[in-house]
Design brief:
three-stranded antiparallel β-sheet; 10 strands; globular
């Protein structure tokens, strides 16, 4: 009897682990702009929000982001892909942390520490492109381990004048 209980428990644990998928979170949803995100890291979700969706059009807006680090950050790299109809149209990558150069306040944080940022973000673009598309963002450390990963779905029908 004990063997069958152990086998059932192992099956349940394996099934739960294999079927874990993070929920889609709503960042903002207003008349002509919707933004959602979903963690693409199978082991960790994170929190992200924007104070007011309409502030995005001002190019500087306040965000909140939080997570617990599963790996230390000595070096940090970001890769962002713009995906339209399943095809990568544009790729951007940048080094955010490296010895002697820290562009972010959480460079040098250790595994297990909480990351929390609340404050302004400025987009380097004049307008958010119209239409439906995905922005895939991935942060990796010096060991090429994923620190955070998310796919953002944008539905923008704002009129710019």
């Amino acid at each position: 009897m004990k063997t069958s209980n152990v086998l059932v428990l192992i099956f349940v644990l394996l099934y739960i682990n294999a079927s874990t998928e993070w929920p889609t979170h709503t960042v903002c949803k207003e008349d002509n702009l919707e933004i959602y995100y979903k963690s693409c890291d199978s082991q960790q979700d994170f929190a992200f929000s924007i104070d007011h969706c309409s502030d995005i059009t001002t190019h500087t807006f306040n965000i909140r982001a939080a997570m617990v680090l599963r790996h230390s950050i000595k070096e940090l790299y970001v890769k962002v892909d713009l995906i339209i109809n399943g095809k990568t149209i544009l790729t951007y990558s940048e080094t955010l942390c490296e010895p002697g150069v820290s562009k972010l306040i959480f460079c040098g944080k250790k595994k297990g520490e909480h990351l929390y940022y609340e404050g302004p973000v400025t987009l380097g673009i004049k307008e958010i492109p119209q239409g439906d598309y995905t922005i895939s963002a991935k942060l990796t450390n010096e060991d090429h381990v994923t620190i955070a990963c998310a796919d953002f779905t944008v539905k923008n029908y704002l009129e710019y004048y």
